[in-house]
Write a structure and sequence with these properties.
The structure is a single chain. The protein is 34% helix and 22% strand. By secondary structure, the chain is of the alpha+beta class. It folds into 2 domains: 155 residues, Penicillin-binding protein 2a (Domain 2) (Alpha-Beta Complex); 336 residues, Beta-lactamase (3-Layer(aba) Sandwich), CATH 3.40.710. Strand 19 and strand 20 form a beta hairpin. The chain is elongated, with a radius of gyration of 38 Å.
Length: 575
Amino acid sequence: MNRPLQKAAVKLPAWRRGALLLLLLSLPLILLSRAVSLQLLEGDFLQGQGDQRHLRVETLPAHRGAIYDRHGEPLAISAPVDSVWADPGVLLAEATDTEIRSLADALDLDAGALKSELSAREHREFFYLRRHVDPALAETAMTLDVPGVHLQREYRRFYPAGEVTGHVLGFTNIDDQGQEGLELAYDDWLSGEPGAKRVLRDRLGRTIEDVERLREPAPGQDLRLTLDKRLQYIAYRELKRAVEQNAARGGSLVLLDARNGDVLAMVNQPAFNPNRRSDITGGRYRNRVVTDIYEPGSVTKPFTVAAALRSGLFTAQTTLNTSPGVMRVGSHQVRDVRDFGELDIEGLLRKSSNVGAAQLALDMEPGRVWQVLNQAGLGQPTGLAFPGEAGGFLAPVPSRRPVERATLAFGYGLSVTNLQLARAYSVFANDGQLLTPRLLMGAQTPAPTEVLEPRLAREIRHMLASVTRSGGTATQAAIPGYAVAGKTGTSRKAVAGGYAEGRYVSTFAGMAPVDDPRFIAVVTIDEPGGEQYYAGPVAGPVFQAVVGDALRLYNVTPDRPLEDGGVTVAGGGQP
């Protein structure tokens, strides 16, 4: 019987045991040396690499300056809001389809479209999901705790008066940058300087710590306007009512302080609400008071009279024979609405005789009427520095052609804006001095320039008071208790090849009280489509309502008995 084989015991050499022991003892030393290397020798480099992945610089938005009226009432303010943004790569990689759908529902977005937009921007780190959201919506979106979704604090512009001040203020875009109106003109002043801070983010892009403030945001500076919010509301209401009642295409109104040129109200129709982005469409937001030009018509006849009286060839007692109401100038005819017979200078203005105005112009040296219109600033920018202001048109040199001299005398052959016309009427309201309008309180404007002698300006102003009294063309503009001076103008609209039939611009320009004017207003109704189209019944009531309320709000003492309000309506000439 064989015995089982037994393996001989293997005995390791002593050097191998020593080597194994040395290896085990050296491992802690290797780890320790590596730790020393990472912490001391490579620590700065590794810290920098980590910071590059987790430290970010965030922009701190600057608060945009507010805009106030002359009494400190807010017209434009900025309020803090939140915008929802995402890191598309993180969101797509770590969020489930269910989470993305829930996020889209919370933000009122289409889930499929959202996922497509995220996929197209997968390699970007920043993408807005919704800008300027309501606080409740922002809170709902963040409670979902979707990876890669964050909030960013921004500012949104609000306009408390809405469409009442829209054309003057303009609006900002979603990044709070001025786009139109005063928001654009003074964007640098209002904007301020954004700040910056360094933050620490986790791997999901969430901010977990504010590390340091690099730069504090510098808020924008405020603007205080010459507008009176009360008068702005009144002007808006009355102009809108007139445009609707007369089925007009549009309208404009500007109200000035006759003492210094301050713009107290400036409104247009149709209007737009800068708080509603859907309202901001081309053509609706232009400020027609300063951008739209038109031939003013008879409203410039006071300047023709000024040129005539200044020439020394005529006096206030000069009589003009306007019969039979038609006058031939070359191959053209100048017409009145009816035969006014003999008129003195005041009667020419009261009845608005084209024939009488043409006679004055043709009896003077060429260029006399042009000179006064030019000195009064018609066809020139007003100096208001409003974006898009039109210069209008007045020929650079006076014409010597009789027909052009005649038509210029009753307001054709030049084009103006409402603001230019209001500025020109400051010559009569301010005893011959031409003012420069302003919209900013405290803004420096050029010193007034003398256009007419004070005595002559006052004489014409008192002649213009007859226009709003019985027998004048604008009895509807009369204000009970106050003497009103003004002039109507109903001009045909120019089109290619001539003038359109049945399309008119109806304008009333005036001031009150006559003895010491406090307010100047110009009202224009564009293409009235109702039964009336003459300026007296169309634009006159707007002047009466707006300036009447302004006189009472500013406690201007009445200068006439209430029964002498001049409200009796009587037939007149072409306004």
